[in-house]
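Q: Sequence in, structure out?
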Amino acid sequence: MTKFSRNDVLQRLKAETAQGRSILAVGAGNGLSARCAELGGADLIVVYNSGYYRVNGLPSLVGAIPVGDANDVMLRLGRQAIMPKKRTIPVIAGVYGIDPTRDIDDLLDEVKVIGYSGIINFPTISRHENSNYRIDLENAGFGFACEVDMMRKARERDLFTLAYVYNPEDARAMAEVGVDVVVGHMGLTTGGDIGSKSAIGIDTAITRIGEIFDAAVAADPDVILLSHGGPISTAEDAEYVNVNSKAVGFVAASSFERIPIEIALKKACDDFKSIKIA
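A: Exactly. Output:
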């Protein structure tokens, strides 16, 4: 398998932005998505449990509720579906940093052995922001600090690091430990058959993303900034965010491997159903 160091990944991404090209990271819940992303010119493949559920017809949000084993899904996808083919672009592992059933050091070592070049904190309790659920998790010792510490340990292993964050405070915490990329997450993606029906408007999203990015840059001026989720569901949406914020790219998950597939498969079915008989 092709392995990429943290510096390898950084140089690849910086080369894209230096030439005025937007960075694209895409979620892959199976080998087909990974292959298409690679052939289509994506910069990064991201493998997390939500992708597995997404390509099986469920909302991405299923990856953030207590069903299955998030880290096991990620490890299994890496071994069986993503890594068997030699990849020419870096693959990022979605690691659940507060998993109490695993030693995080052992887990990160396993991630690296499988061939992942980096990690992203998914699922993340940043999603819950100031909810009672998050307060309870924090009080029980399963707080966001566990995810931050995971990033620090990943850096020690020369793994590239991306952080999903939903608010400025979490963005600042991640930037302070030197994550390479902060991704402003705007929630469940709109569009398609099972997307969010009540996302915020895109201009509101840009305001929120701006606050997240400002906090991250204040802690680390060199951090790379990407957008994701909510009303940002098309290439046009992502470009609008790039132009009107500090974002230099987009993380496409449902936007890549759910919504386009829903459209294409329904059209193919309609086309075949429309053929004539003698």
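The mean pLDDT is 95.
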